[in-house]
Amino acid sequence: MSDSPESAPVQSIIPTDISQAVESASQDRNLVWFGLDIGGTLCKSVYFETETSQDKVESNGDTIDIQNLQHYLMSSETYGSSGIRDSKLMLKCVTIGKLKGNLHFMKFETHRMKGAMELASKFNNVSKIVLATGGGAYKYKEDFKQTLGVELIQYDEIHSLVFGIHFILDNVSREIFYWDNPNFSDTPEKRFLSLAPSSVYPYLVVNIGSGVSIILVRSQKDIERVGGTSVGGGTFLGLTSLLTGVTSFDEAIALAEQGDHTKVDKLVRDIYGGSYEKFGLPGTLVASSFGNMNLDEKREKAKKEDLAKACLITVTNNVGSIALLCARISKVERILFVGNYLKNNVMSMRQLAYAVEYWSGGKNKALFLEHEGYFGAVGTLLQHMN
Ligand SMILES: Nc1ncnc2c1ncn2[C@@H]1O[C@H](COP(=O)(O)OP(=O)(O)OP(=O)(O)O)[C@@H](O)[C@H]1O
Ligand SMILES: CC(C)(CO)[C@@H](O)C(=O)NCCC(=O)O
User: Fold this and answer.
1) Which ranges does the record mark as transmembrane (predicted)?
2) pLDDT in tens, 101-149
3) Of 235, 286, 328, 345, which is the most exposed, with the fewest CB atoms less than 10 Å away?
4) Rounded to the nearest whole angstrom, what is the distance from the C-alpha of residue 341 to the centroid of ligand 1?
5) Which ligand 1 atom minimizes the distance to the CA of 211?
6) 16-163+375-385 has which fold?
7) Do the beta carbons of residue 252 and residue 246 sit within 8 Å?
8) For residue 146, what is the DSSP state?
9) Is the Cβ atom of 341 under 6 angstroms away from ligand 1?
């Protein structure tokens, strides 16, 4: 089988040369289950701590490594230089396939994959196979085999995402939320919706990762990638780093929180002196992102904070308007925004909520999910175990 994504099947097809390994790992009930979503910026990892692995701890020769692994993962919420565990998202007592257990959510920067593998190599024999999706499931397949002797079983990233969303909606009651009055009050209310997966269809899912994929989901299995844009979370992080010198996403967000993008962007009112009423464009609308930065006097006054905020608004508005166009073309009202760009990024969520509500005349609503970046990784476990 080719490792190229172009030739990837919808679900994993296990090649002959590893089918035996997979078969024996499945029969032997793999001791430790990991689902990875190895993206362009972040590697998301879901660890399924099962009752089975607890049984094995008592009776198996691999006992020490499993206990060490479990202890290593659970005794801290940070690992190495970029790894973190999102302990608040942990799910207790979920059932996947025939197994019950707890789901733990972790992530680290993909460019640190080599270090992560070195770390993993310290826990021998705990897993013969690891389920994986995202571009890195292809890019790092051989490295996993060579370094760890682990077979990466590949699953398609968009199908994994949708399977993961469906499962989480089915298992978590406070998952979907929206922002009430996103632009009219200083502290907009975050409100949860209880929507059964079956009543959420059809919907558009806008996955804001490094780049952005927009998927029309008619049912769990009837999905279509209806759009995308290369201007996504990677663009925000890249441009903000370039313009302000920040070195992390958290720093970029913190800077943007203090900024004023109107010092950088050219607004409708800068051009009209007010609103462009005939076509419903308010004076405060951005007419041209970064459109004031060709002027020396404006450039001198723009602070790093303002530049960071302008980057955030540029990316967010662009994603919002492409999402809305896709929703119109696809004739759907519900738009779910996911992906790690939204992590601790209330500014972008509010902006998306406001833009979607405003430009659709209240017809469309922007919805968000608590497990924002982990659906793909969860989806690999579901596809393999069900
Ligand atoms: N700790 C972090 N480090 C780097 N980027 C972060 C971090 N937290 C949030 N982000 C944002 O999340 C984006 C990556 O999101 P996500 O993990 O959903 O995508 P990805 O899977 O890496 O990308 P793609 O799906 O395009 O391959 C980054 O581009 C950045 O904007
Ligand atoms: C390439 C992927 C699918 C990798 O997850 C993502 O980064 C993406 O959808 N980028 C946008 C590509 C485009 O449609 O222009």
Assistant:
1) none
2) 999 999 999 999 999 999 998 887 788 899 999 999 999 999 999 999 9
3) 328
4) 6
5) 26
6) Nucleotidyltransferase; domain 5 (3.30.420)
7) yes
8) I
9) yes
In this predicted model, which residue has the larger pLDDT, 128 or 380?
A: 380
Residue 130 is encoded by which pair of tokens? 């690891």
Please give the helix or strand (H or E) that residue 216 lies within, else none: strand 212-217
Cα dihedral sign, 34-137-1-11: positive
105: left (phi over 0), alpha (psi -120 to 50) or beta: beta
Q: In the chain, what's the furthest Cα-to-Cα distance?
A: 77
Nearest-CA residue for ligand 2 atom 15 is 229
> What's the DSSP call for residue 220?
S
The SS3 assignment for 280 reads: coil
> Cβ(234) to ligand 1 under 6 A?
yes
DSSP state of 101: E
Encode pLDDT of 148-172 as tens digits: 999 999 999 999 999 999 999 999 9
Is 5:213 a contact under the CB 8 Å cutoff?
no
Six-digit token pair at 203? 């919907």
The answer to whether domain 16-163+375-385 and domain 174-259+302-370 are alike in fold is yes
Could you give the ipTM of this predicted complex?
A: 0.99
H or E segment to which residue 58 belongs: helix 51-59
Separation between Cα atoms, residue 307 and residue 303, nearest integer Å: 6
Give, in words, the CATH class of 174-259+302-370: alpha beta
> Measured in angstroms, how far is the CA atom of residue 39 from the centroid of ligand 1?
7
Q: In terms of C-beta density within 10 A (0-12 exposed, 13-18 middle, 19 or more buried), how is residue 57 classed?
A: middle
pLDDT, residue 315, reads 98
> Which pTM value belongs to this model?
0.92
Probe residue for ligand 2, chosen from 6, 156, 212, 215 as the CB with the greatest number of ligand atoms within 8 Å = 212
Strand partners, 33: 48
- Closest to 302 in 3D by CA, of 284, 288, 290: 290
Q: Where are the domains of the chain?
A: 16-163+375-385, 174-259+302-370, 265-301
